[in-house]
Amino acid sequence: MLIHHYSPSTGEYLTSSQPDADPRNDGRWLIPSSATIDAPPPRTPTTWPFYRDGAWFLLPDFRGRVCYRTDTGEPVEIAIAGKTPDDLELTTEPRPSPRHAWIDGAWTVPPELIAREKRDAAMAEFERLMEIARRANAGKADAYAAGLLDDEGTYYFKAWSAYQMALVSAINADTFPDAVAWPATPAPYVAPAEPIEPQNPASVAST
Fold this sequence. Notes:
- This is Tail fiber assembly protein.
- Residues 1-46 are annotated as: Disordered.
- There is one protein chain.
- The strands form five sheets. The chain has a three-stranded antiparallel sheet, with no helix packed on it. Strands 9-8-10 form a three-stranded antiparallel sheet, with no helix packed on it.
- α1 packs antiparallel against α3 (151-171).
- The chain is rod-shaped and about 150 Å long.
- The protein has four helices and twelve strands.
- The protein is an alpha+beta fold.
């Protein structure tokens, strides 16, 4: 015969042992408090017996299992029986990345984070392209205003200035940053063709 001990505060099954004989009655066994002769039911890997209101119940048991906090993704080990990971605001699924948050029972990258990352990436590209344009025109504004640039210099100054304005228009568009149409960089300068001088009729006749 076995008696089965349980926690007096929670009812959690603790251990089983043989009872002591009653020294005053040879045909009787001593059953201490917080123990019962009722055998606990067979358990599964994630359940544990609890004795409550005169009967055994199987409650969740995730002790020793590594779970993850749903607020930070930090790994923790469950130390108590009778609670599911959900009860403790935990999950058995590891957090895929720091970008993920626990939303509606699953690790998900928040839509607002995706939108912010998309905008940040687009603005970084804007700043990169704008810096190229600024370097192309650096120190030339006064020379252009004074008419000191040659034809090629004037062409590139105007072209890069227009390019900067087109960049600003691109980030001010209603479709930014979901659909960005970056302007093309200025085309290479092409010098105007030299005028063809008319031939002297007298020289043509002499030939």
